[in-house]
Amino acid sequence: MDQIDWAEIRRAATLATTHSYAPYSKLRVGAAGLTVDGRIVSGCNVENAPASQCNGNTKEVRQITGGFYHTLHQGAFGTVKVGTQYSYTQRFAFEGVGGAPKTDEHIVMTQLRYYPF
Question: How many other CB atoms are there within 10 angstroms of residue 7's CB atom?
């Protein structure tokens, strides 16, 4: 594979957008890529699909969150606080082909807040 036919890849991605379903965002998305053996593969965005990982496949969600705030300065013109929060989420999907998928997510958020007067 010496030469990549970018026009053909763009055509495949554009064609994939015609299969896109986006009733909420109205953003029709198509994508295409080239495999190692030279095949062009394509796909599209499908919002609210019952088989997608974000919807009906979720069996259980576990989450724990904790955090703190500290007052850095309190004066005549307001208060400045700094905070940190940690969140841990586990998502379990229903068992299917290949087992039951599980996702772990760790999020750390920091904040700097100013409260006037």
Answer: 8
